[in-house]
Write a structure and sequence with these properties.
Blueprint (H helix, E strand, L loop, with lengths): L2 E3 L6 E6 L5 H16 L5 E7 L9 H12 L4 E7 L5 H14 L1 H6 E4 L2 H16 L6
Length: 136
Amino acid sequence: MPLSWDENHPNILRMHIPNIRNWGEYDTLMDDVLAEIKATDERVDVIVTRDVVRYRNGGLPHIAKAIEALLEHSNFGLSISIASETSKFQESMMHAIVRRLGDEAVRRFHFKPSIEVAYAFILEDRIAVDGESKSE
């Protein structure tokens, strides 16, 4: 299942990107993510895993549009991609997009080496930003 709410950490949305055949599939998945974020007033953090070994050509505008759309929502917290499941090229491209979009994007989009590290990072950020951990 590409999207699921974490059972142990409320308001953490798990997003899995399967091997997409075209960018329309990615756009549809991101529309679903945005709908989930819109459906609540609570802070939502996203942990991203993927099967994608290499994105198809032409994806940068789709990824940039998705990041911009996430940043438009005041209840969007962080997006953490699991770096061990991405290529260094993909990671560098994501960093370039995020840097181009400014400091707020840089603060909210990260790569971490494991899901466990991603959870810890999100919980620390929730304490720092929100003053408490809403996921315990």
